[in-house]
Amino acid sequence: MTGRTRFSGLFKFLVPLGVLLTLSSTSSLAHGHRPIVVASKADTEGALLGSMIAIALEREGIPVETRLQLGPTQHVRKAILQGEIDIYPEYTGNGAFFHNLESDPAWKAPASAHDLVRRLDAERHRLAWLERAPANNTWLIAVRGDLARRSNLTTMDDFAQAVRASMNLRLSASAEFVESPAALASFEKTYGFHFPRGRIAVQSGGNTMTTMRVAAQSIGGVNAAMVYGTDGAIATLDLIVMKDTKGAQIVYEPAPVVRTEALERFPTISKALNRVFASLSTAKLQALNAEIVVDERPARDVAERYLNQLHRRPGG
Fold first, then answer.
1. What is the pLDDT of residue 24?
2. Separation in Å, CA 157 to CA 164, 188, 193
3. 162-211 pLDDT, tens per residue?
4. Is the N end or the C end of the chain the one with fewer CB atoms within 10 Å?
């Protein structure tokens, strides 16, 4: 396993590979440098964060070429290791799979996860991890709002107690979430419950828009869903996320990963991106993702408007 395939948005945002390659208006010839190739994974948040990276670098006068929504985790990771791309947004927790260290407890705390993957990638691959966003896009379980409020369900402890009490909970989730020892099984082990597999509606793929809609619409009696922490439609669909207070899940905070060679050519990359990512809380990413998946606004437009707002803040 080399990290989760993350589909936090709608599939209509995926485009044919032949049209993924676009050039920014910044001329690389004018700067005497080949452009920095900015990529992202094939999901909504990838397009959002990749667009932020590209725009921020362009505003620094850095020549940029974009290959956004390039593919799943494994494909984009291979591309940066082979030097085909220079920078893309990745999640700290995927370092557990990149370096075959899934059992290391460091991945379950934000600071240690970032420190560990930064050190390993620098030593082994000459990759630099820049400032991380304080937004954990990990696996979580959300419950229909009406049921959660009526039954006072706010944490995974509450959820586990409800399962043990045989409350009629039915879960919509991907096969990976159900089968991976790092997902549902980790919740069960940490909180001391067993969710009956016969009450799980397994959805193909990892598209959380599907799992959330099944729960929100009570399809087949489903009233809970697998979600990612920064999914944009959680609030819109009136789902309440169960807080993982005991840290059952690996931490997945997004951060730009850049080839050291590119960073040496353009040292201002760090300055341009660190403040941007440090500003992205879980709530902020949920709201920005919602503009894309709910309001159907282009990812680059959402990214550009956010960066304009950030620039106008004190210290911007």
1. 40
2. 11, 10, 10
3. 999 999 999 999 998 999 888 999 999 999 999 999 999 999 877 899 99
4. C
| C-alpha to C-alpha distances, 229 to 15, 191, 253, 269, nearest whole angstrom | 25, 19, 10, 27
Strands (E), the chain: 21-23, 36-41, 64-71, 87-91, 127-129, 139-144, 171-174, 200-203, 224-228, 239-241, 254-259
Domains of the chain, by residue range, sit at 11-136+254-312, 139-241
The rounded distance, in Å, linking the Cα atoms of 262 and 86 is 6
Fold topology of 139-241: D-Maltodextrin-Binding Protein; domain 2 (3.40.190)
**Entry pTM:** 0.85
Which of 1.20.810.10, 3.40.190.10, 1.20.1530.20, 3.20.20.70 would CATH assign to domain 11-136+254-312? 3.40.190.10
Ramachandran area for residue 271 (φ above 0: left; ψ -120 to 50: alpha; else beta): alpha
Confidence band, pLDDT 50/70/90 cuts, at residue 4: low
